[in-house]
Amino acid sequence: MRKRFKRIRDRFLVFLASYLGPILIYLLGKTLRIEWVGEENLDRIRRENKSVIYAFWHGRMLIFTYSHRKRKIHVLISQHRDGEYIARIIHRLGFVSLRGSTTRGGSKALFEMCDRTVAGFDVAVTPDGPKGPGFKVHPGIIYVAQRSGMPIVPITNSARNRWDLYSWDRFLIPKPFSKTVIMLGEPICVPPESAPEQLEEKRRELEQRMSELTEKADDYFSHSGQSRTGT
Q1: By the 8 A CB rule, do 73 and 95 touch?
Q2: Residues with Cβ < 8 Å from 222, sequence gap 6 or more?
Q3: Domains of the chain
């Protein structure tokens, strides 16, 4: 009886999230004042008619679900129950979910991501997901870049007024009507003939660039008077 109740509850929560989640994200996003920084880093790649691999920290995904909606970006989502909620929500916002993890380079999801980039789709990865450790790059995204030949574009966001949750990823929620910024860093290319030590070097380079970019975004606004709440 208890297991049956749990199944019913989980189905109800997934149903609720898949309908209410996109509405709430859209309503919140419409109030945000978004400024873009570093778009020239993406423009150079677009002029070559290439797709990209977006890399962003797990805790910064919320703003992107609004800013990059309806672009058919293929997003790697964990197979965990929480991943099911996210997959349902982003599907209604115009994303395509690929279920898997970056922690295992030979997984089916990573091979599928390689195929999607080659087919001309942008893909998005949270290289510290799905469960951390936070702000540490797992090697799977480097493997995708090596195999597909597509550049990795570090991307992040921040908000003048926001809540930071007390979770492993310090999940950021912008407050309604807040000024926000989306920053794109310089692309990182991984040559297909890279040796293992070179792949590790690229992994460290991506981790450093993502951390520096996120710090720059957080410093973009003077946070004087900013209110933060953890839950």
Answers
A1: yes
A2: none
A3: 2-218 (3.40.1130)
Query: How many whole angstroms separate alpha carbon 183 and alpha carbon 26?
Result: 20
Stretch among 70-84, 102-116, 182-196, 212-226 having the lowest mean pLDDT: 102-116
pTM: 0.88
Count of beta carbons in the 10 Å neighbourhood of residue 12:
10
Whether residue 228 is predicted with pLDDT greater than 80 in this model: the reply is: no
The CA–CA distances, whole Å, from 144 to 17, 52, 90, 110, 131 equal: 30, 11, 22, 6, 20
Phi, psi of 116 (to 5 degrees): -70, -40
User: Among residues of the chain, what percentage have pLDDT more than 70?
Assistant: 84
Is 92 exposed, middle or buried, given 0-12, 13-18 or 19+ CB atoms closer than 10 A?
A: middle
* pLDDT, mean over the chain: 87
Q: pLDDT tier at 226 (50, 70, 90 boundaries)?
A: very low
Q: Residue 5: what pLDDT?
A: 54
Tally Cβ neighbours within 10 Å of residue 14. 16
What's residue 131's pLDDT? 80
| Strand (E) or helix (H) holding 172 | strand 172-174
- Are 58 and 18 spatial neighbours (Cβ–Cβ below 8 Å)? no
Bridge-based pairing of strands 53-55 and 152-159 is parallel
Nearest to 206 by CA among 136, 147, 108, 146: 136
Q: How far from the centroid of its chain's Cα atoms is residue 158's Cα?
A: 13
